[in-house]
Queue: 2 jobs
Job 1
Amino acid sequence: MSLRVAQAIAAKDLRTEMRSRSAVSTVLPFAVTMLLAFGFALGPDRLLLARIAPALLWLAALFSSVELCHRSYQHEAANLLLSPVDKGAVYLGKAAAAFVQLIVLLVVTTGIVIVLFGLPAGRAPALLLLTAVLGIAGLSTLGSLLGLLAVRSRTRQAALPVLVLPLVSPVIIAATRATADLTQGTTAGISGWLSLLVAFDAAFLAAGYIVFGHLLED
Amino acid sequence: MFDGLAAVSQVSLEIAHGETVWLRGWNGSGKTTLLRLIATAISPTFGGGSVLGFDLRTERSAIRARTDLLSHETRLYGDLTAVENLRFACTLHGIDPRLAGSALARVGLDEVAAVRADRFSQGMRQRLALARCLMRAPALILLDEPYAALDVDARVVVDELLSTARAGGQTVVVASHEAPPAWLIDREVTMDGGRVTSAGVAP
C-alpha cells in the first residue's frame, strides 16, 4: 500500500510537470542564467573557469532544488493532509519525483558547464555518475522535506533557503569535491566523499520519512 | 484561534449517525472553520471532540479515512484529467480505481473524462469534486457552500448526493448561508460570531 502510494505521488508529480513544464519554464532558466552570469563575471580565464566549474554546477543544482521543491507543495498540502495514507510514503513519492526532475536538470546544466567552462569529463565516468546520483539524492531528500515546511510555515518561502543552505552544505561540499577530483582525473580519496554523500542521503531520507507527517500536521 | 481571534468558540454540538444537518450562518460566523475542525484540516486550539466515535485530536487518520470535505477549494489537480484526478484519489483512499468511470457518469462528466481539470469551469470542478465524494462514499460528508458557483443541473447533483447520503445512512453536515432545502435535511443549526445560536430547529 505504502509503496503504491509513493509510486502514485511520484507519477502524478512527474505527469503534472510533463504537462505544465513548470520546472522547465522557471527553474531551468534560473539555473542557466546563474551559470551564464558567473561565466561572464569571471572572465575568459579558461583554467579558472574549469577549476570552479564543479562548484558552480552544484550551486546551480542547489538553488534549483530549493525552487523546485517549494513549488512541489503549492496548492497540494491540504490534499495530502486529508488523505488517510502513510505520510512517509507521500514523502518518498515527493522525493522520488524531485530526484528525477533534478537529475534531468543536472544533465542540462552539466552540458552548459562543459561548453561554457570547459569542464573535462575525467577518466572515471561511472564514479562521476555515482556522484551525480548521490548528490541529487541528498538535495531531493532534504528539499522535499523542507519544501513542505516552507509551505506550511507562516514565514513561508523565506524560510526555505535559510533552512536548506546550512543543512545541505555537507552534500554540496562532498559532491563538489568529488566532481572536482574526478573531472581532474584523480580518484584517490574519492571514496571518502562518496561515503559522506551516502551517509547524508541516508540520514535525510530517514529523517524525512519519520518527520514528514508531523510537519504536515503542524 | 487565528492570530488571537477565536473563529469558533464554545461550540457544543451533537450530530447523530445518519443525520443531515444544515449549518446556517452569515459570512464569518464560523461555519467553515467548524467544518475544517471536524474534517481535521485544522486542530482546535482548545477543547476537543469526537467524530464518528474517533477522537478529534488523537485519531485524525481514522476520521480522515471516513470523512470527505467539499468546499470551494476542490483539491483537484489542474494538470490532470478528470479521470486521472479520480484515479489518484482512489490510490490515496485505497479504493478500486474502476469506480472512477461510474462516478464521472453520475455527475455528468463522463464525456469530458479525458479533459484536464484546469480547462473546466468552476461549476464543473465542483462536480468533479462531488464525483470524488460519491466514489469514496464516506461515512461523514462535509459540504461547505455546496451550491456556490453551480448551475441548475449541478445543483441537482448536490441534491442527489444529499438524497443518496440520507438514504444510505451517511451523516452529512452542510454549511451554507442559503436557506436549506427542507425535504433533504433533518435539522438546521444556526451559527453567529463563532458560536452555535440554535442547534435544533427542524426545517
Note: The first helix of chain A runs from residue 2 to 20.
Job 2
Amino acid sequence: MASVTDTRSPRTRTRTRTRTTPSHAAARSNAGASSGRRIRKSPVLTIVMILFVIYSFVPLVWLIVNATKSQPDLYSSFGLWFGKDFNLIQNIVDTFTYRGGIFVQWLGNTLLYVVIGAGGATLLATVAGYGLAKYDFPGKRAVFAVVLGAIAVPGTALAVPTFLMFSQAGLTNTPWAIILPSLISPFGLYLIWTYATEAVPTELLEAARMDGASEFRTFFTVSLRLLAPGIVTVALFAIVATWNNYFLPLIMLSDPTWYPLTVGLSQWSAQATGVGAQPIFNLVITGSLITIVPIVAAFLVLQRYWQSGLAAGSVKQ
Amino acid sequence: MKRTLASRTLRRAIAAAVVSTVVGVSLAACSGGTSSGGGSASDIDAALKQGGTITYWSWTPSAEAQVAAFEKQYPKVKVKLVNAGTNTTEYTKLQNAIKAGSGAPDVAQVEYYAIPQFALSDSLVDLKQYGFDKLKGDYTPGPWGSVNVGGKLVGLPQDSGPMAMFYNKTLFDKYGIEVPKTWDEYVAAAQKLHAADPNAYITSDSGDSGFTTSMIWQAGGRPFTVDGTKVSINLQDEGTKKWTATWDKLVEGKLLSTVPGWSDDWFKALGNGSIATLVTGAWMPGVLESSVKDGSGQWRVAPIPTYDGQPANAENGGGGQVVLKQSKNPALAAGFLKWLNNDQDSIKVFLKSGGFPSTTKDLNSSDFLATAPEYFGVQKINEVLVDGAKNVSTGWQYLPFQVYANSIYGDTVGQSYTSNSSLNPGLQAWQKALVDYGNQQGFTVSGK
C-alpha cells in the first residue's frame, strides 16, 4: 500500500516536468516567434509557402475530383474539374464489391499489418530504447553502433535478402512475412532512447526503487507516462511506414488474399496493360482515396505529438 | 518471490518459442524440396482421376471461368487460382520463387517473350514426356515455335497475336486518307493526317520494346540468335535497318503521339480520334470493345502494311502456360494445362472473353470467321486477322533475358524517341547494354 501512495507523488511531479522539458518550451516559443515574423517581413517566403501548399494539394484535389467520375467520364472530361455525372457513391460501392470484395480484404490486411506490425514495432522500440537509456550493461556501445548502422540501411536494400531468408523458413506468402520485418524499427528505438534519456530523470527511477517498486512496475507506472509523447511519435512513424509499405509485400506475397492496399491497388492499375486488358482506373482512384483517409485522420489526430516528438529527436543527441 | 517466478516463467516461455521457431524452420526447409521426375501420358489420366490440389498463376480475364469449368469436369482436382500480378510483376515473383527453391505455382501463365528466360534456367517441365509434342498440328506455327525452346517443349500456347493494323475509319474518311498497304503509304498517311489535324497522330509510340521486336520480326530481321548459352545480338541487321529507315521518318518528323501505351490518356485518345491506327496483335479487338466504348463503330481492321506489298507478318504479344519444375504433382499440372489449352470446353470460355486463340481448329471454324461485331461496323474482322496469322514468318527468337532487356529499353532506345532522332544509335546502345548484361549473367554473348 505504502509504495502505491509513494509512486503517486513522483507522477504529479513528472507532469510539471514534462511541461517544462526544454525542447518543448523551445519548440513552442520558436514557432510563435517565427510565424509572427514571417507574416510581417517576408512576402517571398509567403509566396514560396503558397506554392508548396498548391504543390501538395493539387494531387489531393485531383484525387477527390476524379473519384467522382465513371470510367468513360475519366477519359472525356478535364482532369481538375468534375465530369458529367457525380459517381462517387457508385465508385465506392464498386470498389468495395469488385471481384467479390477483395478490397475489403486488402483493407483488413493493411489494418492487421498496421496493428500488429506497427504496434509491435512501437512496443519493442519503447522497451528497448528505454532499457538502453536507463540501464548500464556491457556491450551497450556495441548495441548503439548496431542501431545507428541499422538506421543507415534503407529497408528496400534489405528486402531481397529478407525474402530469400524468409523463403528458406517457409514464411513467404504468409502475413508473417510482412509483420516480422515491420516489428523492427531502429529509428523508433533511437528516438525513444534519446527521448528517455532526457524525459525520464534517473533520480525519479531511483526514488521508485527506494520505495520498493519493481523495475517493471517503475516502467509501467512511471516511465511509460513520461515517454508518452515519444511513444506516440514512434507509433505514428511506424503506422505511416507500415501503411505505405509497398516493396516488401510486393516481393513477399504472391497470393492477393494477403495483399495490403498498396500492392492491391497497383495490381488493379496494372490490369489495364496488354492482352486482355481490363482498365478500372475509376476504382483505382476511388480505392486510393479511401486508402489515404485513415492515414490523414491519424495525422490530424496525432500531429501534436508528432511535432513535439520530432523536436525531441532533433535537439537531443 | 513472485517476481523471480514470473521472470522464470517468461524465460521458459521464450525458450519454448525459440525452439518451436527453429523446428518450424527446419521442417519447412525439408518440405521445400523439388520433384521433377519423369512421367508419361498415362500418368496424366491417373493423376486426374486421383485428384489433388494445384496452384495456377494467371492474370487473364478468362482464368476464373476456365478453372471453374475444369473443377466441374474433374471434381477431385482443386485448382487454386492466384493472380500474382500482370506480366513483369508475375515474372519477378516467379523468378524469386525459383531462386528461393519454393513458392512457385504448379502452372503459370507466361508470355512468349518471357518463356526462354524460364526455359533456359531449367525451371520448366519438358512436356514431351507426356506426349504433348503430338499436339503440334493443333497450333499455328508462330506460337508453337515460341513454346519450343532448346529442343524441349516447355508449355502449351494459349493465345496468339498475329499483327494487324487497326484504324479509325471515321478519321480516315474525314481527311480522305486511303488505308495504307505499304509502310511508305503509312508514312504518307501520317503526314497527311497530322497536317490536316495537328492534334491527330497516325499512332502512338514513345518506345515499346515489344512493338520494336515485332516490327523487326516483320521486316525480316532476326537480331537475336540463341543456341544454348551462346547468344548473338545484332540490332543492325538488314531487317532492323529496314524497319528503322521507315520508323525514323515518323520519329524524326514528330509524327507519333507520345501518349504512353495503356495509360488512361491512351485509352482516351483511342476513343476521341487523336490516335488513328494501332499496329498490334490480333487480341486487340477485345480490349477495344470492352475499354474504348467511345470508339464503337469507328474502328476497322486491315492487314499490317508491308515493305514491298507482299504479305509478311509477325507476332505481337500472346502467351501460354507452363508447368514449373517445383511442382510436386507435375502430372496433374500437365493434365490441367492440356485441358486448359487444348480442350474445347476451355477454349470456348477463352473465346467468349474476347481472346484470340492459337489453335488452328478454332481459328478456321466458320463461326469464328463469321463473327462481325457491331463495334467494327459489322466487318468480319477475324477473316483479316486469321489471314494475317498465315503470313507470320518463322525463325524468330527472343533473348533468354528478354524481360530484363525490355526493362532497359526505355533507358537506351527510349532516348532516341524523346530526342526525335534516329533509332539506330539507341538500338546500338541497347545492344551494348544487353551484351554486357548477358556476359555478366553467364551467357556467352557476342554483339555484331
Note: Residues 171 and 177 of chain A are 6 Å apart (CA to CA).
